[in-house]
Design goal:
The chain has 13 helices and 19 strands. The protein is an alpha/beta fold. It has a single domain, classed as Alpha-Beta Barrel (TIM Barrel), CATH 3.20.20.140. Strands 1, 2, 3, 4, 5, 17, 18 and 19 form an eight-stranded mixed β-sheet that branches. The protein has a four-stranded parallel β-sheet with strand order 11-14-15-16. The longest helix is centred in the middle third of the chain and has 18 residues.
Length: about 450
């Protein structure tokens, strides 16, 4: 059945223009676009059975693309499944996601790639692009059957969760991804420097008595992988960049022509290591004006939902990551959605599994930065749509006639509270529980089908 989305502000990330208009969708594609306000009687002239959705005072954006999520299937379906993870993605406004290979078994065989693609088609909430393991079992020893995995549908390689420790093996990985013309998604970490870590190493970790993960551990890993990518003239994508030095390394590498890209996660721009202090943070602002600020004092100290890898860093690091996104050093926003079960989090802080569920809160977190005047709305939408599309080798996501109808309708003024019972993800491990947010995807359409509606 046709669907007409009327009188919203249409965002075109290709031309970087916004205009009031309406979008007509049928058979999975955009069939017409009307500029200006659509008169009320115009809906009467649409085909019989057309669903009309009023988007007055709302934004009509292309569907968001997230090149870094963890869907946990196969093997850890108690944490997330492809169905629940993509349902959560739809609730967050996402229509395309790329899933990391740290599953059990790892995505290191054609059979697992095929399972993921089949399960995603069956669920029907979003397109899922598998990222295959670079080495068998993510053990860092023997290369996976990379050609066969790409032929089966893998869009890149990673051992995410751990780096490939042996630089000689890593060099071989780069040689193969160059030949196959796909990116390597680097989890950049020197695990000797970070061994036994609890949180970011700094004043807060000293105060709380937690072993630290120094910024240098991430930066040494980034520097090594940049050097190997430069040596092999291969594609390196640096995942979840979180430090001042990491941003600087990527900026310098790009300036000298290295084929390197990077991503910024919402939590590494909006949450600092002070969130681990919780109630102990006497200096934190007590206010929580929806859409303008977040309040770390609403959480207890040592809240394991704040434990993520790489860890929440200093406020200076948060600012550097945001500036890296703004100046193009970091190419797009990626959530690193990482669901865990209660048993993984209700333990001593440094023993808790690292990860934050973020795909349902990413938009509101980033809109807070828009409301603060730190990033423009257009820049944000570009970095959640066209920029990741370009990274994945796709064309513009702009909603033009003939385009696939992947659409997100946003109510930028909707105030809502993050509640575990209302999250579609099986993982409830977000430090934003109880926070009042402003801005939400109120309708998501994937291939012309409505996959989420408030």
């Amino acid at each position: 059945m046709p669907t007409l989305i009327t009188n919203g502000t249409i965002i075109d990330p290709d031309t970087q223009q916004m205009s009031v208009g309406s979008i007509l969708v049928d058979n999975g594609v955009v069939t017409a676009r009307f500029e200006g306000l659509l008169p009320a009687d115009a809906t009467v002239r649409t085909a019989p059975g057309t669903t009309v959705i009023d988007a007055t005072h709302k934004l009509i954006s292309p569907g968001f693309i997230d090149p870094h999520v963890h869907l946990r299937e196969p093997g850890e379906e108690h944490k997330e499944t492809i169905a629940t993870g993509t349902r959560a993605a739809a609730a967050g406004g996402y229509t395309v996601v790329a899933c990391m290979p740290n599953t059990r078994p790892a995505i290191d065989s054609v059979a697992v790639v095929q399972h993921i693609r089949t399960a995603a088609r069956r669920a029907g909430f979003a397109e899922v692009l598998p990222i295959a393991a670079a080495t068998i079992g993510r053990a860092g020893k023997e290369l996976s059957p990379m050609r066969e995995l790409v032929d089966a549908g893998a869009i890149g390689f990673s051992d995410d969760g751990v780096p490939v420790g042996d630089p000689a093996v890593m060099r071989n990985v780069f040689e193969y991804v160059k030949m196959l013309d796909v990116p390597y998604f680097g989890h950049c970490e020197d695990m000797v420097l970070s061994k036994g870590w609890g949180m970011h190493e700094g004043a807060v970790s000293n105060r709380l008595g937690l072993p630290g993960y120094p910024s240098a551990a991430e930066e040494v890993g980034i520097a090594r992988d940049i050097a190997l990518a430069e040596l092999t003239n291969s594609r390196l994508h640096v995942c979840h960049v979180s430090t001042v030095g990491g941003v600087a390394l990527i900026r310098a590498a790009k300036a000298r022509g290295v084929n390197v890209t990077g991503e910024a996660s919402p939590h590494h721009m909006t949450l600092s290591d002070r969130w681990v202090l919780g109630w102990l943070d006497e200096q934190a602002e007590a206010r929580n004006e929806p859409g303008m600020s977040l309040n770390s004092t609403t959480r207890p100290p040592y809240d394991t939902n704040t434990r993520v890898s790489p860890p929440l860093r200093s406020e200076a690091d948060c600012e550097a990551v945001l500036q890296g996104l703004l100046d193009g050093t970091l190419d797009f926003v990626a959530t690193d959605h990482a669901p865990h079960g209660r048993v993984d989090k209700e333990v001593e802080y440094r023993l808790a599994m690292a990860g934050i569920t973020g795909i349902e809160t990413a938009l509101a977190s980033m809109l807070m930065l828009v409301n603060q005047g730190r990033i423009s709305l257009m820049d944000l939408i570009v970095r959640m749509t066209d920029a990741p599309a370009a990274f994945l080798g796709r064309g513009t996501t702009a909603l033009r006639t003939g385009a696939r109808a992947d659409i997100t309708v946003i109510d930028p003024q909707l105030v809502w509270t993050v509640e575990a019972s209302k999250l579609f993800s099986m993982g409830k491990n977000t430090p934003l529980l109880g926070q009042k947010m402003r801005g939400k995807a109120v309708l998501t359409m994937y291939k012309g089908n409505i996959t989420h509606q408030e």
